[in-house]
Amino acid sequence: MKPVEEFTAQSLPPAYDPHAVEQPRYRAWEEAGYFRAEIDPRKEPFCIVMPPPNVTGRLHIGHALDNTLQDILVRWHRMRGHATLWQPGTDHAGIATQAVVERRLREEGQTRHELGRERFLERVWAWKDEYEKNIVEQLKRLGASADWSRLRFTMDEGLSRAVAEVFVRYYERGLIYRGDYIVNWCPECRTAISDLEVNHEEEAGHLWTLRYPLVGGGEIRVATTRPETMLGDTAVAVHPEDERYRHLVGREAELPLVGRRIPVVADEAVDREFGTGAVKVTPFHDPADFEIARRHGLPAVQVIGEDGRMTGAAGPAYAGLPREEARRRVIADLERGGFLVSVEPLTHAVGHCDRCDTVVEPLVSRQWFLRMKPLAEPAMRAVEEGRIRIVPERFTRVYLHWMENIRDWCISRQLWWGHRIPAYTCAECGELQVAVDRPERCRRCGAPGERLVQDEDVLDTWFSSALWPFSTLGWPEDTPELRYFYPTSVLVTGYDILFFWVARMIVSGLAFMGDVPFRTVFLHGLLRDAEGRKMSKSRGNVVDPMDVVERYGADVLRFTLISGTAPGNDLRFSEERVEASRNFANKIWNAARLALSHLRGFDPDAGRTWLSAGLPDGSRPEGFAAAELADRWILHRVNHAAAETGRLLERYEFGEAARTLYDFIWSEFCDWYLEAAKPRLYGREGEEARRTAQLVLWAALERALRLLHPMMPFITDELWIHLPGTGPSAMVAPYPEPVEAWWDEDAAEAMETVMDVVRAVRHLRTEAGVEPAREVRVVLVAGEAEPLLRRGERYLRLARAGEWSFLAEPPTEPASSAVTRAVQVFLPLRGLIDVAKERRRLEKAREEARALLDRIAARLERPGYREKAPADVVARDEARAAELRETLRALEEREAQLRELE
Q: Contact 256/263 with Cβ under 8 angstroms?
């Protein structure tokens, strides 16, 4: 324990400077090894796996929120004595990382194809090494107390082996297959993407009605939103029960602009209410049409290529054109040929790539798929049976609905950066082998391993991320960490990746570990700007968390991010909220400096036993005075803050926990207890009284700092280690629990009664215009509350009350009055104010209020105003008018009081 003489207020600068505190504190924590997780069978394990940030650049404000919430939980459980592991790592982010590196290459005048696969991957690994280091440093600036000695990367050697092992096991179980199916294709990223990676946005478009001539006479009209794809039509489909077209089923139509004969088929998938009720069937470029074609044995014609341009199959007039230009030309040619019947405006959903926002093209492509239905069923049961709890609970229904309707997952991507699919085709005989390592020879023809060609594609980034909770702990090896920390305790992430990541981790954990990957899923909301809009570069409203840290410090950012949060709800981020958190940090710093100025040379050990017993009079140690009402009250409130904060953190109500500590520290400790204790702290009531006040001040402050530490770790630790009688760091000190002997409802009731009276007197002083420094006389009619009030009547000086008296009935002299829950409070006015000056002020205020009320009343009475004006405007006017009438009433009462003083 540190010597008490070492710590003084002068040890701390007069103003809080986060730059002087935060990085030195973090280095001290790292050097002391506080973040390292140890396996200890005697302790309850607590483990969180960090959602791995992409190695594409800098952290964004969402990362700051996500990691702040995790760090709060990690620090809280570490202080509670749990064996705590926060497993960190980063994600290779296949499409996103390859895109940024390719963009860098284009700036240098190169392409990945010119470099070749091997050299391109060298460039990406170099990018990864640079930006992973940056990301880790940014997380450290935020205060993340992860075990950095265990840092993992989704493509490191161990995780790559885990990915290959999972692929092979799925394949051997018949859950992975390869086939030609229609997929979402991004022409910009040049790869297939999953359904979850497609954002469907409502856009203004058109519905074109086209006339297809029938062979032998007549016509059939079809409606489409994509006329350029008609060049790839291989049928027209109608509903089998549609009386309009039943007689046409089996006939042929002649495809305009192409001349190809295509059949009219009946299929129940056709929506009779859409357009004309007859639809063109383009199997290569529409998922529904692809299924219709499979049912009817129709051919598929690819008229749009992987680059988003028309293929040779579209015809020489259109080959090579971008999709948009081909659409314009096809429409013009259809109109010229008399095949365009009508054009109507239509708002419809258009799929965009989640990464680059390019319009997605449905294409038939050979891809690898994972069968999800057999895997989804146990994942649903795990949630339904309560083995996994989702917070907030409303997302349970969302999760189950998605899992019930899950489709097979397209897991292959046409990229170079990622986990290459462990499938090998023999160049001699075409035999396909799936293996963790390259086979030594073909199992069919015996060709050597070098004749086995590995699949060019890589796996979807989310395939490896889905293994994160157990692969990071050493799977497929049976490691001590895996046995001790799995299943992990809680997953903290945004609700926007519930399906991308959370559901797939549950599936994978059950499939390969036989148990859920985590016991609880906490889903937080998304950060929006001050106006509630989504943050985006195009809007210019993106907040860089490191900019906020540079200006205000990490603690201020952290407290801003959690203040006002509620599970699953979005949160608005504004400069005003940041400044409010900065003010809170300054308040804590200044209060601690004041406390330290009164704790110089104080040794809390002399009173620890007495303090733990609740400061009973009968066992008071020598040198201490009896505890006062304020002492017992603040200890009771420390207990309440500890109990309430713990309860709220257990429920993941971070915002409410932050508010509880804010109110306790700012209002109860700083504004009330410090002020109430000052006479004793300054020695005005003797040394014994001073020592008792010091003991309670020390106890309340050091516990408040420990309570707040998980949320604001830097400032709390810096102040805590300056207090006498503490240890090396708050982060390894126990998290405060209520002390049974400190509960004192009687003291709480008495002090609250006094505080109510003080607030009332302060209000009456302000209302009467009494100078702040002037003392006043107060009359109290307390009734049954008088004994409570007398216990703390000395604290009435906090309202600058120079004298006070208790009466059974209200005074007859002129006085302002207020009523608290239990007490009538009177402020006699004679001799207290300049009556003439106050009369002039009131007259002016009354005239201004009357003029404004007349204007609003005239507007409300204007004919037609209430009917024509927006309802919220009328309501605002009515509320303001009522407020002004109340103001006028109060001003008239005040003037009547002044007349009594003349």
A: no
